């Protein structure tokens, strides 16, 4: 069954509108400028403990896993989604080095929709490396200047 591209565009615009929520913006800013996991256990700790980072972490990762699920399950045309979004690649790139281990420790299906979508993209590894480099430079900029240019 072919997915209606106009309907897909409407859903993508709704997803964009949800990203503009003030709390979601704060969570996204935290994720891309301050979240720098050094191990799978650090991510698992975020998932199991209840502190500020957990709320923001869960908000961002569950949002993008849900969006990827809509694509994977045919609710959004893949080309429409990928043509309008790149942030999901950045979100995935932060957890990518540790995700397999997180899935073993926490839950096998954790972030599977996001993982499947990103890894199915042409040149996925190159895209992930590029987003990792970009996020690292944003982190360094925030540490150096104390300001965030993400909004």
Describe the structure in brief.
73% of the residues lie in helices and 0% in strands. It is mainly α.
Tell me what the structure shows.
There is one protein chain. By secondary structure, this protein is mainly alpha-helical. It has one domain. Helices cover 73% and strands 0% of the residues. It contains 9 helices and no strands. The longest helix is centred in the last third of the chain and has 22 residues, at 124-145. It starts with a helix and ends in a 6-residue tail after the last helix.
Low-pLDDT sequence parts: none
Strand content: under 5%
* Number of E-type strands: 0
Continuous helix count: 9
Q: Give the overall average pLDDT.
A: 90
* Tertiary shape: globular
| Whole-number tally of structural domains | 1
What string gives the helices and strands in order? HHHHHHHHH
Report Rg: 15 Å
Kindly report how far apart the N and C termini lie.
38 Å
Can you tag this structure with a few keywords?
single chain, 151 residues, mainly alpha, 73% helix, 0% strand
Q: What is the topology?
A:
Layout lengths: L4 H15 L2 H12 L6 H9 L3 H21 L5 H7 L2 H9 L3 H7 L6 H8 L4 H22 L6
Helix pairs in contact: 2-4, 3-7, 4-8, 6-9
